[in-house]
Amino acid sequence: MSTAQPIPRVSLTWLLVAQALVIIPHLGHLPMWIIALWLGCAAWRVQIFRMRARYPNAWAKVAMMLGAGVGVFLSRGSLIGLDAGVVLLIAAFILKLVEMRTRRDALVLILLGFFAVVTSYLFDDGIVAALFSLLPVIALLAALIGLQQSAFASRPWPTLRLAAGLLLQALPLMLLLFLFFPRLGPLWSLPLPKDQGVTGLAESMAPADIAELSQSAELAFRVSFDGPLPPRAALYWRALTLDRFDGRRWSQSSGAEFAPAPAWARRGPAYGYSVIMQPSAQRWLFALDVGETDLPHTRLMGDFRLQRNQPVQRALQYRVSSWPQALREPQASPATLRRALQLPADGDPRSRAWAEQLRQRYPQPQALVQALLGQFHDQPFRYTLRPPPVGVDSIDGFLFDTRSGFCAHYAGAMVFVLRAAGIPARVVAGYQGGELSESGNYLQVRQFDAHAWVEYWLAGQGWVSVDPTFQVAPERIEQGLEQALAGEQSFLEGSPLSPLRYRNIGWLNRLRLGWDNLNYDWQRWVLGYQGEQQLQLLQGWFGRVDSRDLVLVMVGGGGAMLGLLALWLFQPWRRERDVQQRLYRQFELLLARHGLQRAAGEGPRDFAERACRLLPAQAVAIRAFGQAFEAQRYAGRSLPSAELRRHLRHLRRALPWRLTRA
């Protein structure tokens, strides 16, 4: 392909279409000036093609490049990082359109476009994004085909059909590579784009934080159990433990991060399940108590949460085995107990005085806990997402004045009173419940399922979990947040278009659950298809074999398969190096089936003229092939070999199956 040849019109057309399709998935995280830049550069490129504008000179190129760099810096605050890098890539992809002069430049632009398509998966790897990415790929392939100067490539729609056909032909090979090529872990980890909003629990909690999560329908994770689903009241998904209180917020103390793994003993039934967790930008994982996982670089922390070494920046699939009735840390360390008794030096005097009264009335910790839960059940406490303000002393204001709140209010107040009464306690933050899928084989847990509960410590019995919210609004635990808020109609009130608000409409709810089931399968079998899943699948087919031997067999078998495929496609044993001579040989064989043999020393023109006399009905087709062969073979005309093939096909159609002579 000569670099001096101009860019064909059809290729330029598909390049413009491809650029628009490449940019569309990035619109949610690109600055608006990128859109204006593309519109300006596209219009400029069209005017250049119509010879109404000139190419930019060196100074103009430098100015545009510097302007793009300044724009990225002003909009992203840096030229380094994932967000800035993607914007720079898209800007270079656009600017190259104006600078493009030759086919070589167009080829560089097409390859840059393929790379830009891949970067869109850093922001959205869902099934819709994956299907849409096929459109810019087809358009880029059409632009690549259009670079070839031929009568076929000069027409846009046949070019597009050929590009789509090539993509379809590549699908079987892509599936084979996906299934059998060894799954390698990433060589590096990319951070979550900072402008991609992630809702979820944080390392500290105030009641307003849980209220905000309760208005979000974003997915937190999906989970499928190996056996029967546990009762909804047992679905307490621990995320982290909060053991420090400053008077307004609960947070995790620094000592908890370095505490050794706690002692615990398995008791009661075990649950095995698989979790697909959405990106959270946090290191903790979600699991029922007490959870064990074989996920690499993950361990059980001192407060019984599962935590990875690195934050969860992409959808993560892992397996857990849990024992909810396990005996947890029956002999706690003094440091752990000190953290579980910490309170501010002053504040909330009424709550402290009430805790002292309870301690004197109920000297046994378990009796005091039951009395406190009974107070929440018997007194006029109310569950609501619209609590009135509580003032400076937040615990006092809630317990004695407003008596209205949600899980964070009840859990925080109960832990405060227990600590003031001398009982070690802490707040557990996570999620409770989940919605069963239409197929019934997995749960989907959303941000509005965020929940806080209490665990307190007893000597010899370890940590015991209780939920004061259940005493006030049992329907929150047994049925869900929507049922608990049915009276005040505050469920997802900030999202009137959310389909979750219309679960009472049968067909709409079935459509929503069906779509969610499709996304679950996509995450489980495509995004979650990693080394362990691949090994299990292949061992199920080929038996229990060593993973290293299996990799060697797959690599060797894949190489042999590709070699056989190449032999079948190219068939080198049937091809002569001289294409013209091979086609002329087919011409001779075709006429030989009708009784015409080329004599020794007879030239192509003489042979063609003799054939025209003997087959006058096919004379036009015979003469057309002979003239085309002479033009290419002897006159030095650089006609494409496709033209010679076309004349040969016409002759084959013109000749009858059998030659009849008078």
TrEMBL record:
Where the record annotates domain Transglutaminase-like, the positions are 399-470
Pfam families xrefs: DUF4129, TgpA_N, Transglut_core
Query: Keywords assigned by UniProt?
Result: Membrane, Transmembrane, Transmembrane helix
Protein name listed in UniProt: DUF3488 domain-containing protein
Superkingdom is: Bacteria
Supply the source organism for this entry. Answer: Pseudomonas cavernae
Q: Which InterPro entries match?
A: Bact_TGase-like, Papain-like_cys_pep_sf, TgpA-like_C, TgpA_N, Transglutaminase-like
Transmembrane feature ranges: 58-74, 80-98, 105-123, 129-147, 159-181, 550-570
